[in-house]
Q: What sequence folds into this?
């Protein structure tokens, strides 16, 4: 009975050595791939969006996240007033500005 316990202890200790570290390599590689393919591009996109929102100014032609086109007529810290037609103005939160319109889109 003592010999079986020694054999069991030896096999348990062997899996914690270099072979145990090698089993972590695929997980580390998966994390690295996810970081470069998913996390990093998303962070860059959020940074560009935040920068665009901070540079908004009166008169900018925008497209809102709902797809509505308009022109900014007034800007406050968190709220933008957008003219979407000759006599129609709406107030929106700044973060709902999806992007600036280009000259080709007019």
A:
């Amino acid at each position: 009975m003592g010999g079986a316990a020694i054999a069991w202890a030896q096999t348990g200790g062997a899996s914690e050595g270099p072979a145990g570290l090698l089993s972590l390599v695929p997980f580390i590689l998966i994390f690295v791939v996810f970081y470069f393919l998913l996390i990093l591009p998303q962070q860059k996109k959020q940074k560009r969006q935040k920068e665009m929102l901070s540079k908004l100014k009166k008169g900018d032609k925008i497209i809102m996240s709902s797809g509505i086109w308009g022109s900014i007529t007034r800007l406050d810290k968190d709220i933008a007033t957008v003219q979407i037609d000759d006599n129609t103005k709406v107030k929106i939160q700044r973060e709902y500005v999806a992007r600036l319109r280009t000259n080709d889109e007019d």
User: Anything to note?
Assistant: The chain has two domains: 1-55, 57-106. The beta strands are 61-64, 69-75, 79-85, 88-93, 97-100. Residues 1-55 form one domain.
